[in-house]
Amino acid sequence: YDGEIEIPEGTKFVQAVAVNEKLGIYSEPLQIEIKDKKFEIDRDKKVEIIEPIMYNSTAETFNGLEELDEFDASISGIILEISNDKNNMVNEFIELSMGGFEIDSPKLLESQLENIIGNFFDGRDFEVSLSINKIIFKTGADFERWVSSKKENIENYKDKIRQ
User: Fold this and answer.
1) Rounded CA gap, 43 and 99, in Å?
2) Would strands 13-16 and 30-33 be described as parallel, antiparallel, or unpaired?
3) Integer CA distances (angstroms), 88 to 62, 76, 81, 127, 131, in order
4) Is residue 136 left, alpha or beta, with left meaning phi > 0 and alpha meaning psi from -120 to 50?
5) Whether the Cβ atoms of residue 79 and residue 97 lie closer than 8 Å to each other
6) What letters, b where the CB count within 10 A reaches 16 and e where it falls short, cover 125-141?
7) What is d(CA 3, CA 22) in angstroms, rounded to the nearest whole number?
8) Which residues partner with 161 through β-bridges?
9) Mean pLDDT of 100-104
10) Nearest-angstrom CA–CA distance, 19 and 3
Protein backbone atom coordinates (compact mmCIF):
# COMPACT_ATOMS: atom_id res chain seq x y z
CA TYR A 1 0.00 0.00 0.00
CA ASP A 2 1.27 3.45 -0.86
CA GLY A 3 -0.64 6.59 0.19
CA GLU A 4 -2.20 8.46 3.03
CA ILE A 5 -4.39 6.90 5.69
CA GLU A 6 -6.86 9.04 7.61
CA ILE A 7 -6.69 8.31 11.32
CA PRO A 8 -9.92 9.13 13.17
CA GLU A 9 -9.70 11.58 16.07
CA GLY A 10 -9.28 9.89 19.42
CA THR A 11 -7.44 6.87 17.96
CA LYS A 12 -4.93 5.46 20.45
CA PHE A 13 -3.20 2.83 18.28
CA VAL A 14 -2.82 1.93 14.60
CA GLN A 15 -2.13 -1.69 13.76
CA ALA A 16 -0.87 -2.89 10.38
CA VAL A 17 0.00 -6.21 8.77
CA ALA A 18 1.45 -7.08 5.37
CA VAL A 19 -0.34 -9.81 3.45
CA ASN A 20 0.37 -11.38 0.06
CA GLU A 21 -1.76 -14.51 -0.25
CA LYS A 22 -0.15 -15.61 -3.55
CA LEU A 23 3.31 -15.67 -1.98
CA GLY A 24 2.07 -16.81 1.40
CA ILE A 25 3.39 -13.71 3.19
CA TYR A 26 1.76 -12.79 6.48
CA SER A 27 3.76 -10.36 8.60
CA GLU A 28 3.64 -9.96 12.32
CA PRO A 29 1.30 -7.12 13.34
CA LEU A 30 2.98 -3.74 13.74
CA GLN A 31 1.35 -1.59 16.39
CA ILE A 32 2.01 2.18 16.55
CA GLU A 33 0.82 4.33 19.43
CA ILE A 34 -0.81 7.62 18.42
CA LYS A 35 0.11 10.35 20.87
CA ASP A 36 -1.93 13.52 21.18
CA LYS A 37 -0.17 16.50 19.74
CA LYS A 38 0.80 18.82 22.58
CA PHE A 39 -0.95 22.17 22.58
CA GLU A 40 1.72 24.86 22.31
CA ILE A 41 1.72 28.61 21.87
CA ASP A 42 4.26 30.40 19.69
CA ARG A 43 5.52 32.95 22.22
CA ASP A 44 6.50 35.47 19.50
CA LYS A 45 3.29 35.51 17.43
CA LYS A 46 0.07 37.33 18.29
CA VAL A 47 -2.79 35.38 19.86
CA GLU A 48 -6.49 36.07 19.34
CA ILE A 49 -9.12 34.69 21.70
CA ILE A 50 -12.05 34.19 19.36
CA GLU A 51 -14.64 32.94 21.84
CA PRO A 52 -16.50 35.56 23.90
CA ILE A 53 -15.19 36.30 27.38
CA MET A 54 -17.86 37.34 29.89
CA TYR A 55 -17.48 39.50 32.98
CA ASN A 56 -20.75 39.19 34.92
CA SER A 57 -20.32 41.73 37.70
CA THR A 58 -18.99 45.22 38.25
CA ALA A 59 -15.90 43.92 40.08
CA GLU A 60 -15.18 41.30 37.38
CA THR A 61 -15.57 43.92 34.65
CA PHE A 62 -13.18 46.45 36.17
CA ASN A 63 -10.66 43.78 37.21
CA GLY A 64 -10.85 42.16 33.77
CA LEU A 65 -10.21 45.45 31.94
CA GLU A 66 -7.26 46.24 34.23
CA GLU A 67 -5.76 42.76 33.69
CA LEU A 68 -6.13 43.00 29.92
CA ASP A 69 -4.48 46.42 29.92
CA GLU A 70 -1.64 45.10 32.09
CA PHE A 71 -0.89 42.41 29.50
CA ASP A 72 -1.03 44.83 26.56
CA ALA A 73 -4.16 43.30 25.01
CA SER A 74 -6.53 45.00 22.60
CA ILE A 75 -10.24 44.20 22.51
CA SER A 76 -13.12 44.33 20.03
CA GLY A 77 -16.73 43.23 19.68
CA ILE A 78 -17.82 44.70 22.99
CA ILE A 79 -21.21 44.65 24.70
CA LEU A 80 -21.27 46.69 27.89
CA GLU A 81 -24.36 46.77 30.11
CA ILE A 82 -24.99 48.96 33.14
CA SER A 83 -28.24 48.70 35.09
CA ASN A 84 -29.59 49.95 38.37
CA ASP A 85 -30.84 46.57 39.55
CA LYS A 86 -28.91 43.39 40.29
CA ASN A 87 -31.99 41.15 40.12
CA ASN A 88 -32.88 41.72 36.46
CA MET A 89 -35.85 43.90 37.46
CA VAL A 90 -34.24 46.71 35.50
CA ASN A 91 -35.82 50.14 35.48
CA GLU A 92 -32.86 52.09 34.14
CA PHE A 93 -30.11 50.68 31.99
CA ILE A 94 -27.50 51.58 29.40
CA GLU A 95 -26.28 49.10 26.82
CA LEU A 96 -23.32 49.96 24.63
CA SER A 97 -22.42 47.70 21.70
CA MET A 98 -19.23 48.32 19.78
CA GLY A 99 -18.60 46.19 16.72
CA GLY A 100 -15.65 46.59 14.40
CA PHE A 101 -13.69 48.91 16.66
CA GLU A 102 -10.40 47.58 17.98
CA ILE A 103 -9.64 49.25 21.28
CA ASP A 104 -5.88 49.21 21.81
CA SER A 105 -6.09 50.07 25.51
CA PRO A 106 -8.75 48.48 27.71
CA LYS A 107 -8.01 51.36 30.15
CA LEU A 108 -9.74 53.66 27.63
CA LEU A 109 -12.96 51.64 27.92
CA GLU A 110 -12.58 51.59 31.71
CA SER A 111 -12.31 55.40 31.88
CA GLN A 112 -15.36 55.80 29.59
CA LEU A 113 -17.27 53.35 31.78
CA GLU A 114 -16.39 55.44 34.87
CA ASN A 115 -17.70 58.56 33.06
CA ILE A 116 -20.99 56.87 32.15
CA ILE A 117 -21.47 55.66 35.72
CA GLY A 118 -20.66 59.12 37.10
CA ASN A 119 -23.05 60.84 34.69
CA PHE A 120 -26.01 58.46 34.86
CA PHE A 121 -25.78 56.38 38.06
CA ASP A 122 -24.21 58.84 40.51
CA GLY A 123 -25.31 57.97 44.04
CA ARG A 124 -27.41 54.97 42.93
CA ASP A 125 -26.81 51.25 42.98
CA PHE A 126 -25.74 49.76 39.67
CA GLU A 127 -24.32 46.59 38.18
CA VAL A 128 -22.00 46.30 35.19
CA SER A 129 -21.46 43.35 32.87
CA LEU A 130 -19.17 43.10 29.86
CA SER A 131 -18.85 40.70 26.95
CA ILE A 132 -15.74 40.84 24.76
CA ASN A 133 -15.94 38.88 21.51
CA LYS A 134 -12.25 39.10 20.59
CA ILE A 135 -9.14 39.70 22.68
CA ILE A 136 -5.81 40.16 20.90
CA PHE A 137 -2.47 39.73 22.64
CA LYS A 138 0.56 41.11 20.79
CA THR A 139 2.58 37.99 21.65
CA GLY A 140 1.98 34.46 22.81
CA ALA A 141 4.17 35.28 25.82
CA ASP A 142 1.70 38.02 26.88
CA PHE A 143 -1.18 35.57 26.46
CA GLU A 144 0.61 32.91 28.55
CA ARG A 145 1.30 35.43 31.33
CA TRP A 146 -2.38 36.53 31.29
CA VAL A 147 -3.59 32.91 31.56
CA SER A 148 -1.10 32.27 34.37
CA SER A 149 -2.21 35.40 36.28
CA LYS A 150 -5.77 34.03 36.20
CA LYS A 151 -4.46 30.72 37.60
CA GLU A 152 -5.93 28.88 34.63
CA ASN A 153 -4.56 26.11 32.46
CA ILE A 154 -3.52 27.12 28.94
CA GLU A 155 -5.12 23.89 27.66
CA ASN A 156 -8.54 25.47 28.46
CA TYR A 157 -7.97 27.80 25.49
CA LYS A 158 -7.02 25.08 22.98
CA ASP A 159 -10.12 25.56 20.80
CA LYS A 160 -10.74 29.19 21.69
CA ILE A 161 -7.72 30.87 20.13
CA ARG A 162 -6.22 31.59 16.75
CA GLN A 163 -2.55 32.13 16.19
Assistant:
1) 28
2) antiparallel
3) 20, 26, 12, 10, 17
4) beta
5) yes
6) ebbbbbbbbbbbbbbbb
7) 23
8) 49
9) 92
10) 17
Q: Are 148 and 73 in contact (CB under 8 A)?
A: no
- Distance between CA 92 and CA 117 in Å, rounded? 12
pLDDT value at 121 more than 70: yes
Say if residues 120 and 113 touch (Cβ distance below 8 Å).
no
Reference 99, options 81, 76, 70; nearest CA is 76
44: DSSP letter: T
pLDDT tier, 84 (very low <50, low <70, confident <90, very high otherwise): confident
The answer to whether the pTM exceeds 0.70 is yes
